[in-house]
Amino acid sequence: MSNFVLTLVTFIAYGALAFSFWRAQVAGNAEALNRGGLGHTVGIPLALHAWLLYENLFIAGTLNLGLVYAVSLILWLTMLVYWVARFFYPLASLLTLVLPLAAIGVALPALFPEVYKLSEPTSWMFDAHVLAAMLAYSLFTIAALHAGLMSLVEKRLHHATLPKVLKNLPPLLTMEKLLFRIVGAGLVLLTLTLASGIVFSEQIFGKPWQFNHKVLFGFISWGVFAVLLLGHTFQGWRGRTAVRWTLSGFGFLILAYLGSKFVLEVILHR
Predict the structure, then answer these.
(1) pLDDT per residue as tens digits for the range 157-206
(2) What gap in Å lies between CA 3 and CA 49, rounded to an integer?
(3) Residue 27: φ, ψ to 5°
(4) Kind and range of the H or E element at 64?
(5) What is the pLDDT of residues 130-156, one digit of tens each?
């Protein structure tokens, strides 16, 4: 099966599941989605999407660093996190919101197939470093989206104007627990990324470690998320404080990574 056909099948599967989840949400059958077989079937397009990512990220022995593939990976990991978390939390409503985004994520590489790879084959250490960085950024993207959704729900609760889909979301306390777990996992990966870049710079990049704007914003972001977790553990930070710190840390991470890639690929065409 060609990648185009597989992409089309995955896109349709995501879309069909998004429609099915939305209908169940509107009908008030959220509990059936959390425990029923429909939620399990999300694993099928997830697996197909994972295969497509593998095919697109590794081309001729070189890691493909294209922006659309990074976005596709972020959306796939978002879908995976919420799909796995539904076994422990009632998160069917979140899947309803994320499924359409996953469909967009699987379509992006087919619509914009430009490849951005290095001119020479890279080492396994470079691949591991970049993949750890991409996964860290992906988890913090999920955390930022999650925090934004929490903020929206909290504001709408005060005005009693929640849409039907959002009315079936899990309690804010449950969403907070998941937020801090996502931030914790992301911080571990970001720590590995920053540490490996410093200690193994010669082996990974072929040159001594340099302090630049990406490193600066990376460390600022790491500090923001570390303070957030410490504040939550020892001072009980939660609610709006957690949302503000999460979005601030993500903002610095955007400046460190996606901002640079957007300028290089979209504006400068490099």
Answers:
(1) 666 566 666 666 777 888 899 999 999 999 999 999 888 888 777 766 66
(2) 10
(3) -80, -5
(4) none
(5) 788 888 888 998 899 889 888 887 776
Cα 197 to Cα 136: distance, rounded to the nearest angstrom: 14
Given the structure tokens 């750890």, which residue do they identify? 132
φ/ψ region of 28 (left if φ > 0, alpha if ψ in -120 to 50, else beta) reads left
Task: Retrieve residue 233's tokens.
Answer: 């553990």
- Where are the alpha helices (H) located in the chain, listed in sequence order? 3-26, 30-35, 37-40, 43-57, 67-85, 92-111, 124-159, 164-167, 172-199, 201-205, 213-235, 239-256, 258-262
d(CA 89, CA 110): 33
Q: What is the pTM assigned to this prediction?
A: 0.79
Rg, Å, the chain Cα set: 19
